[in-house]
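Researcher: Next sequence.
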Amino acid sequence: MQDLPISGHSRADPGSYRPAGEIDEWLARDPITLYRAQLVSNGLLDEAAADELAAEVERRIEECIDRVMASEPADVASMFRNVRSNTTIR
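Model: Next structure:
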C-alpha cells in the first residue's frame, strides 16, 4: 500500500515539484471516497446519509482542533517521555 501527502510538507511548500495531474490521480484512488461510492451503489447508504456522516466527521475533527488549540502548550521536556534508547539493533 502506498500513500501520498496531498499538500506540501509545510505552508511554504506549494508542491510545485510534483508532475501535473499527480494529485488528481491519487485523489481518484482515495479509499474513503471509493468506499462511500461502493456503499451507495450497493444500497447500504444513501447520498444524504453519507453527506450527514461526512459533516459529523468534519464537526468532530473541528472540535478536536479547537480543544487542542485552546489547551496549554506542552512542556518541552514531555517529548522525551517514554522514549527508549537502550534498544539493541542486530
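Model: The first helix runs from residue 22 to 27. Residues 22-70 form one domain.
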